[in-house]
Design a protein that fits this description.
Strand content: 35-45%
Strand order of the largest sheet: 1-3-4-8-6
Distance between the termini: 83 Å
Largest sheet: 5 strands, antiparallel
CATH class of one domain: Mainly Beta
Oligomer: single chain
CATH superfamily of one domain: Immunoglobulins
Low-confidence stretches: 9-41
């Protein structure tokens, strides 16, 4: 046999051998169907429950596996209370946690709403909280949130900010 023939034969054997791994050994055999999540059958999913809400800006490099979204009930006006709907979307189950709220100067919140205890949280669920804030000056005011989740015997915290635009935008 010549050299090209031997190379061709070796190439065919190598290519044929590549398809004999453990993953391909299951081809043709029935596999177990993945179980549907218990949350999958309970109505609208997280995206549907938070439609129209905006994702809060994460602060820092913390990698807490959760997302915070917000929505305003109405356009904020000076001296008038406005409801801010907050939605926490944990991407892991947690034993509980806290939601600490801090408002910048010019934005008044109820003292009862500065620290909110969170119950045990399910992965993929949506947890709503409504806060009432009253702007006392025009401009861009911020609500800051520190979300702390307890899971796997550790606590992780991440900060988020929510801008509240009060009054007319500045003229250019």
């Amino acid at each position: 046999m010549g050299r090209p023939t031997i190379l061709m034969l070796c190439s065919v054997l190598l290519i044929g051998g590549c398809n004999r791994d453990a993953a391909n050994a299951l081809i043709g055999k029935p596999s177990a169907k993945p179980k549907a999540s218990a949350l999958a059958n309970k109505g609208p999913n997280a995206d549907q429950q938070t439609a129209g809400m905006t994702i809060a800006v994460g602060i820092g490099k913390a990698t807490l596996p959760a997302q915070l979204k917000f929505g305003l009930a109405s356009r904020p006006k000076l001296g008038e209370a406005v409801d801010v709907d907050i939605a926490l979307l944990p991407q892991i189950p947690a034993d509980g946690g806290t939601l600490q709220v801090t408002a910048t100067d010019g934005l008044d919140t109820s003292k009862a709403q500065t620290e909110i205890a969170l119950p045990a949280l399910d992965e993929g669920a949506v947890y709503h909280q409504t806060l009432s804030v009253t702007p006392s000056k025009d401009g861009v005011l911020l609500l800051a949130f520190n979300v702390t989740l307890k899971h796997d015997e550790i606590e992780e915290t991440k900060g988020y900010t929510v801008p509240i635009l009060v009054g007319d935008p500045p003229a250019k």
